[in-house]
Amino acid sequence: MSANSSRAGQLLLQASACISWKQDVEGAVYHLANCLLLLGFMGGSGVYGCFYFFGFLSAGYLCCVLWGWFSACGLDIVLWSFLLAVVCLLQLAHLVYRLREDTLAEEFDLLYKTLCLPLQVPLQTYKEIVHCCEKQVLTLATEQTYAVEGETPINRLSLLLSGRVRVSQDGQFLHYIFPYQFMDSPEWESLQPSEEGVFQVTLTAETSCSYISWPRKSLHLLLTKERYISCLFSALLGYDISEKLYTLNDKLFAKFGLRFDIRLPSLYHVLGPTAADAGPESEKGDEEACEPAASPPQATPTSLQQTPPCSPPPAATNFPAPPSRARLSRPDSSILEIDDFPSYFPQFGFSGKVAAGRIP
Question: Domain POPDC1-3: where (predicted)?
Answer without folding.
Answer: 26-251
